[in-house]
Amino acid sequence: MGKLTVGALRAVLVVVLAGTVFVQAGMVWALVSKSDPEDGSLPLTALRVITILGMVSAQVALACVGRLVTMVRRGTVFSHTAFRYVDGVIGAIVAAALMWFTVTALNAPGQRDDPGVTVIMAGIGVAILGVALIVLVLRMLLAQAVARDVEAAQMQAELDEVI
Description:
The chain is mainly α. Helix content is 83%, strand content 0%.
């Protein structure tokens, strides 16, 4: 991975991380200050807490991707250490999907006249879970690459002994 690519990805990660912190701060401020009273149409306090937790899951994924980018840059990504970070990304995506399903359930009673919105929101939740499955497949590919790397190292050691 080139220096420009790594630099661009790190810049994107920092900007997104700053954005999530900004959203979290806004939600915490709204919870603490009680400046936006609920009118009863939606449970705003629950939605704000879910938003804060959703930003935490995004931050976990960002941190894990940042560590993986560092490992790629150093050439150490094909190791067992990388699995911890890939598992962190998968867990964060699944957590985000569960939070999205919770938002969908909280929003559903207000959509009785137009249940299509709830169906679309549920479909988005399924798509988020689909992303987790894609990352799981990529984890399996990483496992195969690590196994081949270990096998190649063993064969090289045997070849060095013969020579």
